[in-house]
Amino acid sequence: MASSTSYNPPCAACKFLRRKCILGCVFSPHFPPEEALRFANVHKVFGASNVAKLLNELLPHQRAAAASSLAYEAEARVRDPVHGCTGEISFLQRQVDRLQRELDAANAVLVWFACNDVVSLEAAGRSNVGLGGGGGRFYQIGGLPISYDVPWNDIYNCHGGGMDGSN
Ligand SMILES: [Zn+2]
């Protein structure tokens, strides 16, 4: 009945495909038995034979990355059948673009403050934040000045251009 040799459970692929997991199974290192859903998604989207063919064509050290990528793409495709991972990429790209615009706007404001002496705001007693014209200190209400670097000094000519970047 039971053999005396140690029992190695079949990998997720061989278990799913109901076949014997042989020594050197190309799926085994990348689809362990406990990741059945991972392989099921890959099989559903790409097909087990295509994945086996692809993994066999790769060098051994490239297979883990390929399997990981296939699993990621398959999961995304199962979650979003229309867009797959391109939907996530588009979402992240829009987020990067939006954050870049916010960063550009914040930098433009910083340049404006650096280029225009805003001591008058402090004199008005309404502002809790002021930057010196040459940069170098950041004031808080009742606090000590905090020194900071002004990276734009090397990039912008403060007295030669405006906020719109024209010189
Ligand atoms: Zn196997």
Automatic annotation (TrEMBL):
InterPro entries: LOB (IPR004883). It comes from the Eukaryota. Residues 82-109 form a coiled coil. Keywords: Coiled coil. The keyword Cytoplasm does not apply. Residues 9-110 form the LOB domain. Belongs to the LOB domain-containing protein family. This is LOB domain-containing protein.
